[in-house]
Amino acid sequence: xxxxxxxxxxxxxxxxxxxxxxxxxxxxxxxxxxxxxxxxxxxxxxxxxxxxxxxxxxxxxxxxxxxxxxxxxxxxxxxxxxxxxxxxxxxxxxxxxxxxxxxxxxxxxxxxx
Amino acid sequence: xxxxxxxxxxxxxxxxxxxxxxxxxxxxxxxxxxxxxxxxxxxxxxxxxxxxxxxxxxxxxxxxxxxxxxxxxxxxxxxxxxxxxxxxxxxxxxxxxxxxxxxxxxxxxxxxxxxx
Lengths: 113, 116
Prior knowledge:
The complex is a heterodimer of chains A (about 110) and B (about 120). Chain A is built from no helices and 11 strands. Chain A is globular, with a radius of gyration of 13 Å. In chain A, strands 2, 4, 5, 9, 10 and 11 form a 6-stranded mixed β-sheet that branches. In chain A, about 0% of the residues lie in helices and about 55% in strands. Chain A is mainly beta. Chain B is built from no helices and 11 strands. In chain B, strands 2, 4, 5, 6, 9, 10 and 11 form a 7-stranded mixed β-sheet that branches. At the A-B interface, strand 4, strand 5, strand 9 and strand 10 of A face strand 4, strand 5, strand 9 and strand 10 of B.
């Protein structure tokens, strides 16, 4: 049973425009959310995170929004650059002392120059 | 600071064999987690080790096992390999102190296992 879902397997965006990647979760015990970026032949790289006590966290071109009532989060990348082309994974944790992450299946972002 | 390293990077085995994968965490990190990545399932948590003890385990059969050494290096073993075990196996380390809360995980490049 997939507790973290990324329903869009792929997304294409023009360079300079906004990229919006979406993620839904089912477990109400999740209270910490992360986005990872993965290039081929490399492990995932941490991008940005958000705690459930916030609804927005911003880091440069990357902003994550959390809607707890809808159990939905999104990653906004503005402006999108060709180097952002990668697979993006949404992940969640229950912060219960167990250090495991529940991942979505990923969204492949292609930024077109 | 050196990142998480995994060996070997690629491995080909046949059904019924066993395999051992190795992970060296970032220096000072005491928590090591293992994940399996397959095309349809994304990354799925296998287990986590902290101070040589398995603290948490995912929903995988007993053929999957692991251990952690006193220097925090970790190995995972898969016995009686099946075709469905073909996947990218990722190791992640974390500076988790064991006192609760969440610590960011840093991933290695993974070991690509192919079972024929």
